[in-house]
Design brief:
This protein has helices at about 10-30, 45-55, 75-80, 95-110, 115-120, and strands at about 65-70, 75, 160-170, 175-180. By secondary structure, it is α+β, with helices and mostly antiparallel strands. It has a domain at about 10-120: Lysozyme (Orthogonal Bundle), CATH 1.10.530. Strand 1 (about 65-70) and strand 2 form a beta hairpin. Helix 2 (about 45-55) packs across helix 5 (about 115-120).
């Protein structure tokens, strides 16, 4: 028989099976994290674009910079939005689990949680892809005809109080000297 320490509780295998069983039961009943907010949910393709921008599309990445998973969650954000139910860090969770937590982050923080990549992927707070920006769609704009007034430039007369005189050094280098003029 295998030795189990007195206060260890259930083994890791039993805990993992229980977690997977509870998650599966919650999803089968139509509730749970994945079903929450699915009316405004972004498509998986949009999240794939964000992940491609954030982590090169690698959903299990942990580079050591403090951000984990395909959508580069910080540990505090991952745990704060309920990701601890799946895994201690995002890189250990599946793609579907990361997307479920990302939907919660999107609802709470908006697309600013991924400032650059959400714009590139077209992610908006509602979850749907953003309409094309002005730079990609050119609209015909009626130009106003504006008559330009011709304005003559004023010449300001200044009294020059000095004159620049050219001088040369013995080696032939040129330099200028101000010679002040009395008036």
């Amino acid at each position: 028989m295998r030795y189990t320490p007195r206060h260890s509780g259930a083994s890791k295998r039993v805990k993992r099976i229980a977690t997977v069983g509870l998650t599966t039961a919650a999803l089968a009943m139509g509730g749970g994290i994945a079903a929450a907010g699915s009316a405004n949910a972004a498509s998986v393709g949009t999240w794939d674009k964000v992940a491609a921008c954030e982590s090169g599309g690698r959903w299990n990445i942990a580079t050591g910079n403090g951000y984990y998973g395909g959508l580069q969650f910080s540990r505090s954000t991952w745990l704060g939005y309920g990701g601890g139910a799946y895994a201690p860090t995002a890189n250990r969770a599946s793609k579907a689990q990361q997307i479920a937590i990302a939907e919660r982050v999107l609802a709470g923080q908006g697309p600013g949680a991924w400032p650059v990549c959400s714009r590139r992927a077209g992610l908006t707070r509602g979850g749907a892809a953003a309409p094309a920006s002005r730079s990609t769609v050119r609209k015909a704009v009626a130009k106003k005809v504006v008559k330009k007034r011709v304005v003559k430039k004023k010449r300001y007369v200044t009294k020059k109080r000095y004159v620049l005189k050219k001088r040369y050094t013995r080696s032939g280098k040129r330099y200028y000297v101000r010679v002040y003029v009395r008036r």
